[in-house]
Amino acid sequence: MEFRRTTRADFPLLARWLGTPHVARFWNHETTPEAIERDFGGSVDGTEPSDDFIVEDAGVPVGFIQRSRICDYADEHIELIALADAPQDALTIDYFIGEGAATGRGVGTRMIREFTDLCFADWPAASAIIVPVIAGNPASWKALAAAGYERIAEGHIPPDNPIDDGWHVVYRRDRS
């Protein structure tokens, strides 16, 4: 797996992926050029404290993954911080497999495992990575478990998609 920083040239690909049913179900994101610029442009420009990556498998783009320190978005993550007792140095990741043909083949588990290693290498002060997942997305939380994450909590966090009830499972992986 290769992780390359997202550029504006990737925005049409992100819009296409975010519009596919298997991604839209859990990301619930606007796909207009303006919305993509608004939500991903800051990472490209370095004005947002998140790092966004296109995930490639054998040189073919298959998904998207991002990371940030939880405390850099404390207002947005207040429920996660309380539920998971997140340390100040903890990171969080979010991800999706954009290409439908890449789902169900272990790509998500590999992507999470390898990106976790990259996160710990790039952020030597990070003691843990904590990831909330809507409970209705078992493929995602099973991929986290298969990548070495442990389930540490469950509880209500406001959902990204209003059709969800907000019940989340929270996974954590500590630095070895």
TrEMBL record:
Keywords: Antibiotic resistance. One of its GO terms (biological process) is siderophore biosynthetic process. The keyword Transmembrane helix does not apply. Transmembrane segments: none annotated. Residues 1-176 form the N-acetyltransferase domain. GO terms for molecular function: N-acyltransferase activity. Pathway: Siderophore biosynthesis; mycobactin biosynthesis. Acyltransferase required for the direct transfer of medium- to long-chain fatty acyl moieties from a carrier protein (MbtL) on to the epsilon-amino group of lysine residue in the mycobactin core. This is Lysine N-acyltransferase MbtK. The lineage of its organism: Bacteria, Bacillati, Actinomycetota, Actinomycetes, Micrococcales.
